[in-house]
Design a protein that fits this description.
This protein is an alpha/beta fold. 41% of the residues lie in helices and 18% in strands. It contains ten helices and twelve strands. The protein has a six-stranded mixed beta sheet, with helices on both faces. Helix 4 packs parallel to helix 5, helix 6 (183-195) packs across helix 7 and helix 8 crosses helix 10 (291-297).
Length: 303
């Protein structure tokens, strides 16, 4: 909505525009967008989507475009934590509220955004590590597929995982490299791990997301390694492909990172338009799933 006009009631049609970068994988990002489109339609909201292709510079361009359009609310999922202060300052000057979804930002002024809705990535890392401690008896040589460098999920999942295994001297991450949250890169990095002189020591894999784990499974099978047996695999996200891999005995555990936050996001937009107070942080509910649960849970997965 152009500046200078009064805001309509939350029930009326409004221009609320926000960007969602593709960081969980293309299929999941598109499904999440369709869910948000449906939620917007139900609430009579005009929703404009800009796919930033997992690039911060594209997100910043989109944000500046939304400033120029004078939109009512901007919601976005920052691909990395840092580098947002200048554009967020400009948004604040125009009095456009900002909602962070999925990922947080590292800024010196928390008034630059209204609220953050998303997962607790540190806790996800802890849950993955706690599962591996139990499954391995507290003894494992771990290869790690890290997410996009500088991103909140990569930083926090690693932090939570290492916090737990630090209490277990017989658990060690001795191979760690970024797979950039993609299946192709996860496969490529796992191939390099398996070709290293220390390859035979690897008996566990921690992947920061399911896509990288699924790529690593391909690499293992091509190298004659039995995924889920020769190497225990725990990953994060809880996507359908992970449940299919668990049902096939190739993935051992996935820690859920629920992306279906559309209703909560639109509730926040409605609250902002109604000038209601919002908590600075809202954590979504998530679970941990093992192979034994996969077959029963698979038909229930929405993403």
């Amino acid at each position: 909505m152009p500046k200078g006009k009064s805001h309509p009631s939350p029930a009326a049609k409004e221009n609320r525009r926000w960007i969602l970068p593709n960081w969980r994988g293309e299929r999941l990002a598109h499904r999440e967008h369709r869910i948000n489109q449906n939620e917007a339609a139900k609430r009579g909201v005009e929703l404009v989507f800009s796919d930033a292709q997992q690039k911060q510079e594209n997100q910043i361009k989109a944000l500046r475009s939304f400033i120029a359009q004078g939109v009512d609310v901007i919601a976005f999922s920052p691909v990395v934590e840092t580098g947002w202060e200048p554009v967020l300052q400009d948004i604040k000057k125009e009095k456009i509220p900002v909602i962070l979804s999925d990922r947080a930002v590292d800024v010196t002024d928390n008034s630059l955004y209204v609220t953050f809705i998303g997962a607790d990535f540190i806790e996800e890392g802890r849950r993955a590590a706690n599962w591996l401690v139990k499954a391995s008896g507290g003894k494992s040589m771990i290869a790690e597929l890290v997410g996009t460098p500088g991103s909140a999920p990569a930083i926090d999942r690693k932090k939570g995982f290492e916090e737990v295994i630090a209490k277990h001297p017989d658990m060690k991450i001795f191979k760690s490299q970024s797979g950039d949250f993609t299946r192709a890169k996860g496969k490529e990095v796992m191939e390099s791990f398996l070709k290293s002189p220390e390859a035979k020591q690897i008996n566990a894999l921690f992947a920061h997301n399911d896509d990288m784990a699924l790529g690593a499974i391909q690499a293992m099978e091509e190298a004659g390694v039995k995924p889920g047996k020769d190497i225990l695999i725990v990953s994060i996200d809880g996507v359908r492909g992970a449940f299919e891999a668990m049902a096939a005995g190739k993935l051992n555990c996935t820690v859920e990172c629920n992306p279906l936050i559309g209703p909560q996001l639109f509730d926040a937009v409605d609250a902002i338009m109604a000038k209601k107070e919002l908590p600075k942080r809202t954590v979504v509910e998530e679970g941990v799933f093992e192979q034994s649960q996969a077959a029963a849970e698979l038909p229930k997965r929405k993403y």
